[in-house]
Design a protein that fits this description.
InterPro entries: IQ_motif_EF-hand-BS, IQCB1. By secondary structure, the chain is mostly helical. Helices cover about 65% and strands about 5% of the residues. A hairpin with a 5-residue loop joins strand 6 and strand 7. The longest helix has about 90 residues, at about 415-500. About 20% of the residues are buried.
């Protein structure tokens, strides 16, 4: 494959541009042939180009196709010497013509280039200042380095040595120049020629291939980051910032994460992290990529104190070196920085790491107080963590300052901010729940769809089977009817043929016999139908009659059983209470039974229980009976009192219901509503006292005819108690309580 050098009016950004205004473009007739194009009066010879292993075909903008190897420096000087200055002099009148254009490689887009026969490039600014760049020294060095890198026979170690020595030589040569723009131009040439892309490809190799070359890789990373600072890619600025710089940062972080695992490579790790910091100072927008990078997360999760301290010191140096660094960050990036610092405070117990983390938070707060203070409030318990774990470590002043900073804004949060945080928290919870429901629904869609398809196909299959069965049945019925019809037709045809063979005198009798048989068949069918209908009607009537009779019998039997049950209940004696003895038990009978019991117990004494134990048990039983009777007596008192109150209430209601209107009532009638008449009240009180005295009689006194109430007095009660031996315990207490009812107002 051959390519030639040709002049370019407007070089596209994807093609490497020559420092003198040319670009590589294929104009030759093809492989194996030669072709050329003249520039002014100088013919340019085709130059063969070989592809390099380190430059496979790429589609991204940051890795353009490899440029053709430049001619030797002597040939370049000849080309520059015989270049027509009149055709390439730029004037202000023809700025956009093919003769008068901007220099695509110039870091100063407003400057105009003039190429003289000696090969030097002169740039004239609008203010009359002339800057003379000695590119005939630096650019051949860059092209020579590029040509050496295209060699496929170089191994990885040789590429490291070549890149490190070549970049050092080019940068040192440009740095000794008095004009600072020379260094910028050289860095731009390194990027546009693809040398920096070679560096990224070498640094991105498999970590197993980099073993033994860690020092060269760290040096190359430092040189690459230095070359990326101050580059002015002009028309390829978008590709440089969007694609190339992120790839450089990713390669540096990947190398740092590999050096972190090597115990003996801590100085090299520090060198690579310094390169990352140098790159971040110039390109602040790469901070978000660094904080969200997986390689940097692995570095943060390292348990080595030196690594954690280097990470924190990196951000302190970046923030201290440039006060424009933090304002250029987004809130998410600032929050990630705070997360790293607070995470080190919570996890790492080393005093140096804790002091550096606190200084980083204070530095962020001093530069951006309005942004950092609300973010610090999101770390609940940070002030208590600082107070408990980080006092007495040698930096109490910084700890107190940070605690004061956190607590100073704690009481300023208004209710609206609290409501906003609650709404945000509710939104987060709802979003998480809805996303979980959506994921679960999407996960079950496949199973639901397969089930739906299976059921739909089964339904279609069943419907098809039903249709086929129906069609088969209809076809069978049609075939049966058709065969029957054909059989009848054959039978009648045969019958007509047989009638034709009969004599004339036998035809009429035969027809009459046929009519008689047909009449018999019709009559038999009719009679059978009539008998079946009559039997069904009779059977239905009989069943209805039997059902009616059964229902009537059930009703009569139910009524008779209820009547007999009521009769038996009326004739049955009432069930006496459990404390009532046998009917007709008198005092003499009771004394006789008591004597028999005593005789039996004296003749048959118990071998298990003594007499004293029996007396004790007897006394306990008496006490239990007494308490039970007292509870029953109290209940009866309450019932009687309730009945008295209800009777009094009903009486008052009847009086009020029958009372005359207020317009005609007299004073005497009004007083009758206040208190009832004297005789009625006296009689009611006497009857009530009699009932109360009767309720206090012993249970055996209520058997048979009851004695008068006047016969019961305290003396008689004591005699009865002595006679019965303590079965009844009475006294004046029960009688004295009558006075409580006597004073009741009825």
């Amino acid at each position: 494959m051959y390519r030639t050098l040709a002049p370019l009016r407007a070089p596209p950004p994807c093609l490497p541009v020559h420092p003198c205004g040319f670009t590589s473009d294929r104009v030759g007739p093809g492989p194996g042939k030669t072709g050329g194009r003249t520039v002014g009066c100088v013919p340019l010879l085709p130059v063969p180009i070989r592809r390099s292993v380190l430059h496979p075909p790429r589609l991204s903008l940051d890795s353009p196709p490899p440029p053709p190897p430049p001619p030797p420096p002597r040939l370049m000087l000849l080309l520059l010497r015989y270049r027509d200055p009149a055709r390439h002099r730029i004037t202000s009148r023809h700025r956009y013509s093919h003769r008068h254009r901007r220099c695509p490689q110039s870091p100063f887009p407003r400057f105009k280039e003039v190429c003289d026969p000696r090969g030097s490039v002169t740039q004239r600014g609008g203010e009359g200042v002339t800057v003379r760049m000695e590119s005939q020294v630096e650019e051949p060095m860059v092209l020579e380095l590029k040509r050496q890198l295209d060699d496929e026979d170089l191994d990885l170690e040789q590429r490291f040595n070549l890149l490190n020595s070549g970049l050092n030589r080019v940068l040192n040569t440009a740095a000794v120049q008095t004009d600072s723009s020379v260094l910028t131009h050289v860095k731009s040439q390194l990027y546009l020629s693809g040398v920096l892309s070679h560096c990224i490809l070498v640094l991105s190799q498999d970590p197993r291939k980099l073993r033994g070359n860690w020092s060269g890789a760290a040096t190359l990373a430092q040189l690459t980051s230095s070359c990326c600072v101050g580059v002015e890619p002009d028309r390829r600025s978008e590709a440089f910032h969007r694609l190339f710089l992120p790839s450089v940062m990713d390669a540096l972080l990947s190398l740092a994460s590999q050096l972190m695992k090597q115990k003996e490579c801590v100085p090299l790790f520090r060198k690579v992290m310094d390169s990352v910091g140098w790159l971040l100072r110039s390109h602040t927008w790469l901070t978000a990529q660094v904080l969200s990078s997986a390689h940097y997360e692995r570095i943060q999760m390292c348990d080595d104190v030196a690594v954690s301290l280097l990470c924190v010191q990196l951000w302190i140096q970046i923030c201290s070196a440039s006060r424009d660094f933090l304002p250029g960050l987004s809130d998410n990036s600032v929050m990630l920085l705070l997360n790293e610092a607070v995470g080190q405070l919570a996890v790492c117990p080393d005093a140096s790491v804790g002091g550096a983390s606190i200084r980083l938070i204070l530095l962020l707060a001093n530069q951006q107080e309005q942004r950092v203070q609300p973010l610090l409030l999101g770390f609940k318990g940070l002030d208590s963590l600082l107070d408990k774990d980080w006092r007495g470590r040698g930096f109490d002043k910084d700890v107190n300052q940070l605690i004061a900073l956190i607590q100073s804004d704690g009481g300023r949060r208004s209710q609206s901010q609290v409501d906003t945080e609650r709404v945000r928290a509710a939104c987060v919870i709802q979003a998480a729940w809805r996303s979980y429901q959506t994921r679960r629904r999407v996960k079950s869609l496949h199973r639901v769809m397969s089930t739906l398809q299976k059921r739909y196909r089964a339904l279609k299959r069943h419907q098809q089977q039903q249709r086929e069965a129906q069609q088969w049945e209809e076809e069978l019925k049609y075939q049966v009817c058709l065969r029957r019809q054909q059989a009848r037709r054959r039978f009648h045809q045969k019958q007509r043929e047989l009638l034709q063979l009969l004599p004339a005198e036998q035809v009429q009798p035969y027809l009459q016999e046929c009519e008689r048989r047909a009449a018999i068949v019709i009559q038999s069918f009719w009679r059978g139908f009539r008998e079946r209908r009559s039997y069904n009607d009779t059977h239905r009537h009989t069943l209805k009659l039997m059902q009616t009779r059964t229902q009537a019998a059930k009703t009569l039997q139910r009524a008779v059983r209820q009547f007999l049950q009521k009769r038996r209940a009326a004739k049955a004696p009432p069930i006496p209470p459990f404390w009532i003895g046998q009917k007709g038990l008198t005092d003499s009978r009771r004394v006789e039974l008591r004597r028999q019991v005593e005789e039996y117990t004296s003749l048959h004494p118990s071998s298990r229980v003594s007499s004293q134990e029996c007396e004790r048990l007897h006394e306990e039983v008496q006490l239990l009976i007494r308490s039970e009777l007292q509870r029953g007596e109290q209940q009866r008192r309450e019932e009687e009192r309730m009945e008295a109150l209800l009777a009094h209430t009903h009486t008052q209601l009847e009086l009020l219901r029958d009372a005359p209107p207020l317009s005609v009532i007299t004073a005497t009638a009004a007083e009758s509503f206040l208190s009832p008449s004297g005789p009625i009240a006296t009689r009611a009180r006497d009857a009530h006292n009699a009932i109360l005295q009767a309720s206090r009689l012993p249970w055996w006194r209520t058997l048979g005819e009851t004695a008068g109430v006047d016969e019961i007095n305290p003396a008689n009660l004591q005699e009865l108690e002595a006679e019965l031996g303590g079965l009844f315990v009475g006294g004046s207490t029960g009688v004295a309580k009558v006075s409580e009812v006597d004073g009741r107002h009825l």
